[in-house]
Amino acid sequence: MKAKNFSFYFGIGLLSFIVLVAAFAPWLTHYDPIGQDLLHTLASPNSHHWLGTDNLGRDVLTRIIYGARIDLSIGVLAVLFPFILGTTLGLISGWRGGWFDAILMRIVDTTIAFPFYVLAIALVFVVGAGPKSIIIAISLVGWVAYCRIIRAAVLVAKELDYVHAAKLSGLPTGRILRRHILPNVISQAIVFSMSDIVLSILAIVSLGYLGLGVPIPTAEWGSMIQEGQAYILQQWWIPTIPGIMVVIVGFSLSLIGDGLVKRLNK
Amino acid sequence: MTSPLLSVRDLHVEIETNRGLLKAIRGISMDVNAGESIGIVGESGSGKSITLKAILGLLPPNARVTKGEIFVEGRSLNGMSDKERRAILAEKIGIVFQDAIAALNPVLTVGTQISEIPHRRLGWSKAKSHERAIELMTLVGIPEAEKRLKVYPHQLSGGLRQRVAIAIALSGNPKIIFCDEPTTALDVTIQAQVLRLLEDLRAKENTGIVFVTHDLAVVNEICEKVNVMYAGRFVERGTVEQTFQDPTHPYAYSLLKSAPDMEHPVERLFSIQGEAPDLTKPTIGCPFAPRCFAASEECLATEPELRHVHESETACHHATNFLSQLNAGQA
Amino acid sequence: MSDIVLSAHELSKHFVGRQSLLAKVRGQDPFTVPAVDGVDLDIKAGETIGLVGESGCGKSTLGRTLVGLYPQTSGELSIFDRQIGKERSLEERRAVQMIFQDPFASLNPRMTVGNMLKEILLFHKLATKEDVEDKSKELLTLVGLPTSALKSHPRQFSGGQRQRIGIARALALQPKILIADEAVSALDVSVQASIVNLLLDLKRDLGLTMLFISHNIAVVRQISDRIAVMYLGRIVETGPTEEVFANPQHPYTKLLLNSVPKMTPGSKLGEAPSGELPKMQAKFVGCRFRGRCPVAVDACATTDPKLLPVKGSNNPDHMTACLLVQ
Description:
Chain A has 10 helices and no strands. Chain A has about 270 residues and is mainly α.
């Protein structure tokens, strides 16, 4: 019991720390994340550059912190849109059933079968590289999971007697969905969204690594790994630290997710 | 005097819950003799099912027996290895659960499941076990036994499934059958058939039956003796006839009066005030006292032990005069 | 005539199975289960009718069809002489309310009791924003709960208390008729007794009309003025409770009453009835009970018995659907 609570709060603490540091970046570091300093390239960690500098003399710590801004905010946005869209469609689909449900589920099946990275790469070519196309690409695919989770939960919830009671008291459908069904099915989607943020950050980083993400020189963990991999044998920290950051964010989100499962299902 | 088939002495069980340590069974003793049918009645949370599970060593991992001794035909199970104990219990005691569909293996045919114990445990040949399975199915009243051996549990109706479960319980020739709410999930007409079957088995095979249920009327019809359970203890025990006629514990009285009687409807059912005590907290005095119409200072201070009153045993300080208290209260 | 609150005539609810396109093209009949199959039932103001039967007999489906959770397949249903169509008006919905079996599934776990009552009281304009709290407190007092319950969530209550909340919710809409579907079946005996008593009090004080559906025949006897026995989608016997218990006419009613374990000290198990509830069929020919019936005659295989007054009974309300006693 106590241990579970600890890991939940530990996850929240860890994530809040990263978020706060990212939010107050300009106050915490006086370096420019894209400002080059060609006199001090590839420096080892020292008192001026805690995590050293990269091949263009940019402060790695500063780039990590500014990178967190980009990666976390895109990660959250890329989950928020599919969350809202998928939840709404799942609610309607589960409640109404019939032709609406049948058509939607076929769309869902098709979307699942579609390879994500191929879609993302295609979009990058159409819309152009950058946060917008990443968010669109992830949203186009991501809503499916929320839709299925919510739909399945609605199918169960709509047969529960408290929903029957709400129907019998003549309440309009919108009200029943909003007040009686949604609050009781949303928890599973929230829990899933925690791991989904991890997945979408991973997707952003992967796209950045492939050079299809946020255009350089903007600080972003994925492109940092990609740019730094040439130096992995000598200045190993340049590509490794951004990778570790992805792992830490993922870890804290999964702790939060686990804690939420316990709390929301009470 | 021969020792009883099963004898339980001062059994205590504690369950680890997230609200703390729950004292589910707080000292239970009972004897089961051949051909005897004993009912254990109580409401949910009274510990009646846990009692059976504790005796059989089927407690969930968060529960454990903290005290007490169990004897099978005079032999104490304390100090035996797990394997030995399980072998003895499996040989002497058969079990029938409430939910037959969960108790039966869905991927094995009925015949395989009934012949499993004779074949595996008793070491009978396949042919002999098969014959035994047919014999058992006929015994529990399954028509066309030979054909039904090859079906799977889900192909049978609820009543037939419970008969199969009883056949499995009987397959090791047990001396005692434990029944944990075996008819609660069944319709009344099917319940009547299953009860009849159990009663016939008892009479024919001299099997001892321990019948756990919340249904007083069922106990009335098939048991000779009854233990009324409340908050992890037996508060009254005696013959069914005596207890149903003349209960000596206010809880037993209240329970009997709160159950509607099909033959004698009353103006108003008796309802018990309050709720059962939280057994994660220490009980002081009689656990029923806060809900009891006859409770006195003494009841709130000391918990009564079972003692002989008339023909029954009862754990109440006011066993002989509680009814006058009730009448005085109503007047 | 106006003292009949609810009247069902030839009411049926058939569940139709899904059908593949191929089967549709071939013109095959879809698989149907006639859970309720031609039920006639009149419920008078102020009376409690007990509906008994074994699982699968259609008693719950009948209850759910009457409240409108299932649309009827055929037949007529009227409330106070007003015909009810497949779509119910708000007022028609309000008129028939239900108490459910499972005290844990019947209350929204994320809503306080106060919000639950407030929502429906305000929606139906049975209270104003100013007096809604008073009205809610009145309802709680009516069902024997402390008014402090308003601020609590369902999980803070025991099963019996939740059942009281469910009753308060149903009463909030001032229904003309209350349908209790196994409302005390999930409760312990002592709690069950207090809910039965509460329903009897409400009936006496508010003149409540109620259809009490239960498999527990002893409880039904305790609570009902009239009783209706259902078998495979049909009502096979109905009449004043005392009359039916003292003088059951239909062979199924006799079998059912005999099977109930008795509380009388010294009562011992009788002969067990034989047979099992047969599977529902899409269509029945003749009497549905004849396969289990100990007294069936040839005519039972061909004639579908109608629910008619018992021949020779001095009580015209006592009716049965058996060729042998009509």
